[in-house]
Inverse folding.
């Protein structure tokens, strides 16, 4: 029976390590007065706790207060002090603080795949001199992970008292103490050679950097959504269709009833297929993202784009998720995981709702040309309009005047390791399938059933028509009083491109101009542009934003926003 | 002078931190202790963040925060 806590700087890779060690089985612990998640897990009678990231034992923010009171009050058997091996000095400052309180510290150097052998032995020597037990691991390459699991169960020795920690030190003010600790650490450190930064002359050049920036993203988007992605999607689709027809044949040979065969092939199998239609885009986006991150370019990008993002009330770190949002909201929301601060994450997710994904382009490129010329100009205008609304509706300043500090490490350039890239994509894809599969699958099955179950008292009316007619009152003020339009909007909740396919099936593209007036088309397009994202995105939002009611609130708010703006357009402006 | 007033590739020593206690402790904890040598590497466009080298690693911080750091250029 041991109680083991994970402590470390916010970007030491602590949570990644925690999740990797326990395969994401962690559940959220409930501690009185705690509003922030403290992850906790029990394995073989031992309890492991992932405490919120801290820089020091002087508590400032809510997260730090929790960690500090935890360290003070609980009888911990071992404190795993996680340190980013590529810049350990700040981490070691915390280590010294923990040691001063006579706590059982065990130092874990994480991300050792990012440092050289010489550096490694240098740090090893220092830790030996300080008499602190340690382990060098990499959550990414899984180096030494098993050793760590064993070692952390041995209760660490308290070790000797370090020479700087004398009576005089204890009388000093907190500021002086920090200085003394750093001076002590500095006395052990040989002159550190700074890694490879030569390329910064080009990549951070005041002028060329931005050109490279845009070219690089143009290329990534072209490859993901213009060439490689659609190619893989076609291949996957034809493979899935092939499998589907095999299943159909097999079922027919077994003399299954026709409606059951249709349910399986058109309902269930279509659901499975639609999950895989996202797959290529998510795959390629994360492939490129992993290359950007591992090479060190992502941090530079954050540096370059921070100022414009700051004006939007965000930081440079939020740029990547937002950009991914133009492709697909699913990887975009998955990428917000990298944002440490809860508030920044919530704001970024809100922004993603206002960024139109590529599935909406499918709808726009078919409907807009019927009512507007030149179409491309108006599509662009719609995009701009939603971004404009984002700027207008998402609060820029935090209400509480909490001082936030934007400080970021710029790592040296590294050649990405294929193994790391592979592992990264593997975990992301697994994540994606686990979180999204059930929702997309269920929603398409339910939608199929609604379309094909007819009312017992009115055999020509499907359940979908019945429900849509019931909901028409909600959309009538927007000028959308046709049940077929309403049901296409409902189907859009499974995936946005189904809005178009539903309109095709129920109305027929050639009749669309008869069903919509210019005004109602406008209000329809605005509604599509803004309303609640597809269910797979929603399911991710529910998992990323805590508490859940806040997530539900945001999703409902998005619906209300879409309704109100469309209403204003239809009733007032047009 | 303020850290933001340094020229590109200019080396300097941190003299003091002129900011509220909260920020001061935070910056100290991050290693911005007096007498530490830093080098300003570059400034991003449009009054964006600055990039400095400190304690063997490279950090980016916003001008808003860097303005609070008083430095003394080394010759």
């Amino acid at each position: 029976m041991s109680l083991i806590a994970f402590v470390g700087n916010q970007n030491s890779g602590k949570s990644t390590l925690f999740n990797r060690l326990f395969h994401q089985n962690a559940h959220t612990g409930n501690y009185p007065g705690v509003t922030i998640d403290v992850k906790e897990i029990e394995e073989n009678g031992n309890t492991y706790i992932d405490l919120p990231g801290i820089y020091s034992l002087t508590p400032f923010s809510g997260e730090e207060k929790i960690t500090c009171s935890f360290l003070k009050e609980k009888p911990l058997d071992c404190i795993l002090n996680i340190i980013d091996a590529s810049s350990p000095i700040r981490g070691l400052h915390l280590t010294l603080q923990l040691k001063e309180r006579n706590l059982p510290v065990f130092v874990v150097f994480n991300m050792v795949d990012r440092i050289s052998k010489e550096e490694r032995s240098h740090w090893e020597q220092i830790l030996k001199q300080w008499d602190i037990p340690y382990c060098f691991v990499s959550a990414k390459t899984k180096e030494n992970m098993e050793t760590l699991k064993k070692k952390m169960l041995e209760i660490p020795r308290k070790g000797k008292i370090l020479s700087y920690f004398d009576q005089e030190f204890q009388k000093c003010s907190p500021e002086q103490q920090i200085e003394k600790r750093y001076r002590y650490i500095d006395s052990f450190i040989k002159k550190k050679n700074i890694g490879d930064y030569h390329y910064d002359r080009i990549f951070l050049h005041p002028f060329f950097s931005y050109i490279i920036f845009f070219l690089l993203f143009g290329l990534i988007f072209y490859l993901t959504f213009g060439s490689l992605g659609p190619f893989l999607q076609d291949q996957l689709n034809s493979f899935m269709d092939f499998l589907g027809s095999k299943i159909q044949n097999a079922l027919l040979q077994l003399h299954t009833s026709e409606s059951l065969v249709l349910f399986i092939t058109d309902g269930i199998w279509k659901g499975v297929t639609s999950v895989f239609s996202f797959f290529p885009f998510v795959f390629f986006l994360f492939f490129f993202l992993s290359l950007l991150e591992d090479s060190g370019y992502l941090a530079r990008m954050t540096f370059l784009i921070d100022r414009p993002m700051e004006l939007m009330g965000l930081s440079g770190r939020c740029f990547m998720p937002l950009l991914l949002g133009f492709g697909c909201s699913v990887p975009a929301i998955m990428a917000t995981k990298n944002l440490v601060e809860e508030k920044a994450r919530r704001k970024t997710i809100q922004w993603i709702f206002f960024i139109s994904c590529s599935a909406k382009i499918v709808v726009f490129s078919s409907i807009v040309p019927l009512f507007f010329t030149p179409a491309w100009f108006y599509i662009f205008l719609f995009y701009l309009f939603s971004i404009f609304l984002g700027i207008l509706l998402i609060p820029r300043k935090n209400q509480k005047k909490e001082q936030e500090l934007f400080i970021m490490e710029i790592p040296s350039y590294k050649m990405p390791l294929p193994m790391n890239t592979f592992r990264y994509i593997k975990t992301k894809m697994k994540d994606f399938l686990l979180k999204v599969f059930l929702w997309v699958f269920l929603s398409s099955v339910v939608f199929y059933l609604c379309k094909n179950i007819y009312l017992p008292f009115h055999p020509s009316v499907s359940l979908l028509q019945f429900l849509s007619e019931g909901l028409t009152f909600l959309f009538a003020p927007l000028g959308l009083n046709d049940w077929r339009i309403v049901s296409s909007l409902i189907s859009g909740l499974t995936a946005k491109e189904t809005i178009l396919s539903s309109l095709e099936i129920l109305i027929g593209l050639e009749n669309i101009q008869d069903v919509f007036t210019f005004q109602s088309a406008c209000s329809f397009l605005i509604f599509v542009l803004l309303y609640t994202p597809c269910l797979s995105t929603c399911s991710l939002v529910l998992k990323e934003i805590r508490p859940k009611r806040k997530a539900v609130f945001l999703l409902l708010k998005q619906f209300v926003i879409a309704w109100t703006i469309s209403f204003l357009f239809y009733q007032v402006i047009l | 002078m303020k850290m933001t007033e340094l020229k590109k590739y200019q080396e300097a020593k941190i003299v003091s931190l002129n900011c509220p206690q909260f920020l001061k402790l935070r910056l100290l904890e991050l290693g911005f202790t007096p007498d530490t040598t830093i080098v300003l590497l570059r400034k991003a466009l449009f009054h964006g963040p600055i990039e400095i080298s400190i304690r063997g690693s490279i950090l980016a911080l916003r001008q808003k925060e860097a303005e609070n750091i008083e430095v003394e250029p080394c010759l």
About this structure: The beta strands of chain B are 11-17, 37-43, 50-54, 57-61, 69-73. Residues 3-73 of chain B form a domain with the SH3 type barrels. fold (CATH 2.30.30.90).
